[in-house]
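Changelog note: in this version the structure field was regenerated for every chain. One regenerated record is shown below for reference.
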Amino acid sequence: MSKLTKNQKLSSEKIETGKAYTISEASKLLKEITTTKFDASVDMDVRLGVDPRKANQMVRGVVTLPNGTGKTVRVLCLCTPDKEAEAKEAGADYVGLDEYIEKIKGGWTDIDVVITMPSCMGKVGPLGRVLGPRGLMPNPKSGTVTMDVAKAVSEVKSGKIDFKVDKSGIIHSSIGKISFTPEQIAGNARAFLATIIKLKPAAAKGTYLKSAYISTTMSKGLKLDTKSMDNAEK
């Protein structure tokens, strides 16, 4: 087992064993215990009391983080020629249709989000074998299949993320960067958690929010107080 560095030891000493923190407390402490020289991502892991194998207990949604993600999101908009100008104006990094479909078929996936139109899904559908495993396949539920491509591009560029529960009942997502202020981290965390709470399936029984942790790329996770609505509303 590797020995803790001096910074790791000091960071560990600041964490109270067994304590569940409010989002405000955790956001401040997270900055104190993160000692990486790079701008680490801030992540949240939320364990839900649902059975993802049942369609009526699947939790999937989108949220626009009020303070953005802190990441440069590369957006490809696959659209008809009449929509290309507005997609470019909204900030799309790549705009077109047939040429990019051929590039993707050839293995090109240097993008973070793909947005398209309903009328283009006939051509985009077959790309599922390439885009699906990478989480890039456009989906109406996440707002990436729409006639208003300009709005979709703008929202993604300004901090919109989509998420879904995995087969273990956990939702994992990055919600910002450690360079954010504690208030910005807390604001994004509250928006993320509040959206998950609103998406509680009617079929879910017992405790819905089983646990939630916030961490950075290389820090320890801080347990959040899921019993207090302070996590989502204050």
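Spot check on this record: The longest strand covers residues 41-48. The longest helix spans residues 182-198.
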